[in-house]
Amino acid sequence: MTVDDSTRALLAAVLEALDIPNPATVGGTEAHDRVLNSRVIHAKIALRDILTEGAPLGIEWTTRYLRERLADNPPTGYVTFAQAKAARDAGKTWSEAVALPAEEGR
Of the candidates 74, 85, 13, which has an alpha carbon nearest to the alpha carbon of residue 45? Predict the structure, then answer.
């Protein structure tokens, strides 16, 4: 079985919705979980539209809708493990590395 391009694009968008970076600290868990929950809801809506409604507007439209919702809910508001590691590699202390930038606020 092969997957057509439209289906592959939708599956890639669903993976993008679910596969967000882990927080560097327990303190970032709340923001991470809030973002992930929102993205999961939109992924469920897209999948439900296709699987139970028959994608009345088409898979391409549903994929665009999902990607737009993901852009509205980026994985921000917490420091990721990769960001903290990069900051540590750049010579920052752990406390400096996991501090949320002022523009993202807490």
Answer: 13
2 class by beta-carbon count within 10 Å (0-12 exposed, 13-18 middle, 19+ buried) = exposed
Q: Quick one: DSSP state of residue 24?
A: S
Q: How many domains does the chain have?
A: 1
pLDDT in tens, 32-41: 999 999 999 9
Contact 80, 23 (CB under 8 A): yes
- What global pTM score does this model have? 0.84
CB-based contacts of 72-75 (< 8 A; 24+ apart in sequence): 73/35, 73/38, 73/39, 73/42, 74/35, 75/20, 75/21, 75/32, 75/35, 75/36
Range of the domain at 72: 5-104
